[in-house]
Amino acid sequence: MKTLNPKGITSNSKEVREGWIFVAIRGSQTDGHDFVKEALERGASLVLVERDLGIEDPRVVKVEDTRKALGELANEFFGKPSQALKLIGITGTNGKTTTTHIIESILNKGGIPTGLIGTIYYRLGQKVYEYEGRTTPDPVKWHGTLRMMLEDGAEAVVSEVSSHALDQKRIWGTRFFATVFTNLSQDHLDYHGTMEEYFKAKLRLFEEYEWDHALINIDDPYGKRIFERLKGKALTYGKEGSLKILDFETSLKGSKLKVEWQGRSFEFFSNLRGEFQAYNLSAGILVGFLFGLDKEVLQECIKEVIVPGRFETFSKDGKLAIVDYAHTPDALEKVLITARKLTKGKLWVVFGAGGNRDRTKRPLMGAVAERWADVVVITSDNPRWEEPEDIIEDILKGIKDTAKVIVQKDRREAIKLALERAREGDVILIAGKGHEDYQEIKGVRYPFRDQDTVKEVFYVRSGKPLLPSQG
To answer: What is the CATH number of the domain that holds 44?
Structure first.
C-alpha cells in the first residue's frame, strides 16, 4: 500500500499527532470509527475507514478491511522486518510458550541470534522489550518489535501466535520461515463460540500467510485436518511424522527422546519433564534440523531449557510441589497424568479458573481434577469481575465425588493448606497461573506468585534460606 511517508501509524486516536495515519478498527468494546473526527482534529494526514461516515474530508479514505490495512501499513512503515528475519510462528492451544523457549534456546546456542515474542515477555538475549504484554501484540507493536530486534542483531525470531491475533489480523503483512501447529483443545470459546471457529482461526496461519515450512503435530486430530488441507506441503512430527517419535521417557530428572529423521535415528536428553514434552521437543528439534544444525549442537541446546512457570518443581521433606500454567482441561489433564507418575503417596491439585472467560471449560476441569487427583483444592485464579464463589460453583458442577474436594477461595491460603497437609511422598500440583506475578480482582492486579507462597511454606517457615525454583 502506498503511504504518504507518515510520521507514525496508530489505531488509537489519542496517539495521533501531526502527520500520522489513523486506522479505524472495529473492536469488541469500542469502534475506531467513532473517533475519526478526533483523529482529524489532531492532525492526521490520512484516516482509513471501512464505512461511509458522512465526513467530507479528502484525508478520509474508505478501504475494504482496516485490520488488513493496518498490518500492511505497519509492515511498510517498519521496513518489512519479517522479510529480513527468519521468523517462526507457533500456534495451538497448549505448548506454545514451551516450544518457543525450546526453539529460542536451540537457535541462540546454535549461533543464530534469536528473539522471542510471547506470553511472558518479548526479548532478545538479555534485553527485554516488554513483560506481560499480549501473547501476540497489535500490528504496530508487532512489526515495530520485529524491527527493533532486527536492528539489535536478531537473525531469527520465534513467536507465539494466538487465535485472537489471527482472527484480528494482528500479524497481517508478515512472512514466516516456519509456521508450527502444536494441538487444539477447548479454550477461548467465550470469544470464538465453537471449536470449529476456534480451529478456523488457527488455520489462518497456514492458509493466509507466506511460509517456507509448515510443521504440524500429526498426532493431533486437528493437526491431521490442517495437513490434509495443505495437500502434503507440510512437514509433520509425532509418532507417524516426518520427524517420527520412536520412544519417550520422562522422570523428575528430565526426559529422554528418541526420534527418526530422514532415515536416521537420534536420541536426546532434556531437563524438561512431562509426557507432553515429547511433542514440544520434537517441534523444536525439527526446526533445528531445518536451520541446518547437527545432532550434537541440538543436544547441547535442549539439555537445559528454562521456561518460567512451566512444571517448576520445589521439594521439602519428601513432598514435591509443581507450579504449572495449565489452565485448560486438556493441559490440566496432561500435567496431572505426569504428576501421577511421580507420586508415591497422594496427588493433590490446587486450581481455579479465570473469570470473564469460557465458562464451559470449568466443569470439564473439575472432572479432570477428580479423575486424576486424590485431593482437589478449588480456589481462585484471576476472578477478574466475577465473584470467586460463582466460578468455584461452576467447577464443582463437573465433580461427582465431593468428598475429595476442599474449597478455599483465597489462593494463598489454598496453596498453604495443601502444602501443610500433604505428607511425605505426596505431590502437590498448583495449576493455572504459572509465570504470572499478579492476581486480577475487580479490575485491579495485586502482586501474587504461586512460587512465592511455595517458598514461604517450604523454605522460610522451616528456617532454611529462601531458595530459587528447584526446576
So the answer is: 3.40.1390.10
Query: Do residues 213 and 291 touch, judged by C-beta distance below 8 A?
Result: no
Q: What are the pLDDT digits (tens) for 36-95?
A: 999 999 999 999 999 999 898 999 999 999 999 999 999 999 999 999 999 999 999 888
175 and 53 share one domain: no
Report the alpha-carbon distance of residue 440 to residue 446 in Å, rounded.
6
Asked if 234 contacts 226 with a C-beta cutoff of 8 angstroms, the reply is yes
Closest CA to 343 of 307, 306, 297, 374: 374
- Tell me the CATH number at 346: 3.90.190.20
Would residue 469 count as lying in a domain? no
372 CA to centre of own chain:
25
Please identify, among 76, 94, 110, the residue that sits at the C-terminal boundary of a domain.
76
From 287, 453, 412, 429, select the one nearest 372 (Cα to Cα): 429
Same domain, 133 and 272: yes
In the structure grid, which three cell numbers stand for residue 445, read together?
492486579
Of 37, 38, 33, 35, the closest CA to residue 50 belongs to 33
Residue 346 is which amino acid? K
pTM of the model: 0.84
The β-bridge relationship of strands 438-441 and 444-447 is antiparallel
Residue 68: domain span: 8-76
Placement of cell 527468519 in the chain: 86
